[in-house]
Amino acid sequence: MNRRQALLGALAIAVLGTAVLIALRGQRAVRAESDDFPDGTFWLCAADGCGADFVRSVAELGEFYRQHPGEPLACPKCGKTQTQRALRCPLCKRHYAPSGPGERVVMCPRCGQELPRRTAPSAAP
Ligand SMILES: [Zn+2]
Ligand SMILES: [Zn+2]
């Protein structure tokens, strides 16, 4: 490879890198609203005998509500609409109903393990 080819190669990599960066930045701007829900939103089916866990991304949820304003989300397993927003247990990764105001779920209802306290990100290295 001569000097000129090496230079062109380096230039191509630089251009490509810049293009990728711009594309990533554009994507990030579009997805900004989902930053709070990097894993999507967690749902639970409360229908008798179902209890399915499922996840909907913020984009999917927005699309659903746009097409079905005011309608509850249907369970992908049983098709019923007794679905509710849920929290995800970090230990067993299953979903559980959030506690009411003033109370705190200390034990995962699905696996029975004590839930780690939600703390602010520590300054630990
Ligand atoms: Zn269900
Ligand atoms: Zn659990």
Bound ligands, each once: zinc ion
Radius of gyration: 22 Å
Tell me the fraction of residues in β-strands, as a range: 5-15%
Distance between the termini: 45 Å
Q: Which ranges are low-confidence, i.e. pLDDT below 50, for 5 or more consecutive residues?
A: none
Biggest pleated-sheet summary = 3 strands, antiparallel
Number of domains: 2
Could you characterize what this model shows?
Helices cover 30% and strands 13% of the residues. With 125 residues, the protein is an alpha+beta fold. The chain folds into 2 domains: 28 residues; 63 residues, no CATH class. Strands 2-1-3 form a 3-stranded antiparallel sheet. Strand 4 and strand 5 form a beta hairpin. The site of one zinc ion has 8 residues, from loops.
Secondary structure layout plus pairing:
Layout: H1 3-30, E1 41-45, E2 53-56, H2 58-67, E3 83-85, E4 87-88, E5 95-96
Bound molecules: zinc ion (2 copies).
In short:
With 125 residues, the chain is an alpha+beta fold. The chain is built from 2 helices and 5 strands, in the order H-E-E-H-E-E-E.
